[in-house]
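Lecture 7, part 2: worked example. A protein chain together with iron/sulfur cluster.
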Amino acid sequence: MREFQSTLFEGGQRLVYDDAVEMTLQSMQAYGQQHDHWGIAWSGGKDSSAVLTLIVHLLDAGRLAPPKTLSVFYADTRQELPPLAIAAQLIMRQLAERNINLEIVTAPLDKRFLVYMLGRGVPPPNNNTLRWCTRQIKVDPMTDALAARIEELDSSILMITGVRQGESAVRDQRIAMSCGKDGAECGQGWYQQVLPNAKGIRGRIATLAPILHWRVCNVWDWLKIYAPMRDYGSWATASIADAYGGDEAAEIAARTGCIGCPLASRELALETILTNPDWYYLEPLQGLKQLYRELRLPQHRLRKPGAETLKDGTLAKNPQRMGPLTFDARLMALARIIAIQEAVNTSARNLGRPEIDILNAEEEARIRELISLETWPKGWTGSEPTADTPLDTVYGDGTVQPLMM
Ligand code: SF4
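Predicted complex, written out as structure tokens:
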């Protein structure tokens, strides 16, 4: 994309774009014009921020014919990395200045990451059996917001996503569902594949990934060099790079998502932010990942004592499975999260830096209320033993090996 700078003002003031942007423009011209209404699913991460600012720029510059309506849906999990959340706030202001319809999409209170985990007691998600988070805090709220928007419209909507797979994957025609390669964002593939078939909007939404072919260097060139320039919209996108490693962002290619994401083996994005002195005060956030790991341990959870009989009379395949978090574990985790947030915000106030908000008073009160109401996930009563209690071993066929004393 670097060649694009030398040709910036070629032909008078008419902006000239490199091949990657030209392909995006062509795909928008081909498919965008078939739809009266466009929506952009925006997470605040680099890919969706690139697609959002580029599309708005192309509209502003008159390179794309505007749709009848454009709606931007910002997916706010409340667990975003602070540099991304702050950049998103600035971009939201810029969208408001352009009178672009923006909706902040957040999961209902009881479904939010921390409330669901500590109020209802569902253990932190993992890669094997329990990845409840992406759908619940990103995809379902986006589906509901879109369904509500579609209700107001007279026709279908084209949902534009920042799914990006690089050139080889485009050749494969595959879009990964999970947090993809090359530093892709959590959730984007789900928007592309799950949204079109979601209940309530099936048949009324088309999706388009107009930067599918972009390499990570194209994204950085756009966010760090071009988008901040006046001719391309003066977008507040340069600081997004901080979350991915500043000048080294392209090489580091950190995957972003929730702070302390239990599904990521390493917290590369946060580790990278902390090497920047401006963000070092966020260091206590490293305690979140450690906490989520601890919460999966047997002493913090209940266990089914024996084989479970299912509704159809058969035995469940996983007897003695571990389940929800005990009340003590939930209160311990809540106290630690409050302490982490307070430590960060005390430093932020002393340093004149932005504060964080991953757990607000309403969420804390709801967690405490759900605990006081003795709330357990479906299928659990709270009478089960803790998972570190020695028990007879029960096998999948129902046979029992007594505990050796
Ligand atoms: S970033 Fe991690 S915790 Fe957040 S929704 Fe994605 S997989 Fe779940």
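The longest strand covers residues 69-75. DSSP finds 14 helices and nine strands in the chain. Keep this in mind for problem set question 3.
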